[in-house]
Amino acid sequence: MSRAETTQALGRLDDLTRRLRAECPWDREQDEKSIVPHTVEEAYELADAANAGDDAKMLDELGDVLFQVVFLSLLLEERGAGDLEQVAEHVRQKLVHRHPHIFGETEVADADEVLRNWDQIKANEPGRERGIFGEVPENLPALLHARKLQRRAKSAGAQPVADDRDAAFEEVGDLLFNAVSLARRLKIDPELALRSASARYRADVEAGAATD
Q: Where are the transmembrane segments (predicted)?
């Protein structure tokens, strides 16, 4: 598809979204708080399609996620806080800023160094919450929350990469499944237990950073 065809397709989706917002009773009633749960659900459905390697399903789910972006951008536009063009330009500028090894003079050795630079650049951007765990959403699912805390804490050093990622993927899945099974037998909520462990981990890391 050419650039012109892509632009036209996005324009048609924008037109349709505006019509739904104006004419559909359900769409007229929505706001950010009512729409975001659907956005999260669509993101999980996209992740499921990606994990399954189902390209046709990915195409479908990507469309659903894109509609969420267009709809939420329209809500911003309605109150003069932004629009789809500003959303696209903002993320473009942000990606340029966070890839100095592409758009600047910075040199990197590998993907781990890219990630470390990304975290450092992001932490120093205006308006960002300070600290190792600044802007880690508390409402992430417990597993994602734990992973993000660990990645932030370890961003100063390279992480080992498994030689066989497929085997590692299955091994980690089995480990998590067995952990949930153990929690069930002990009558412990695994979500709450992991959140508690993440909170202890965060407190320990922050206490260590404060004494450095």
A: none
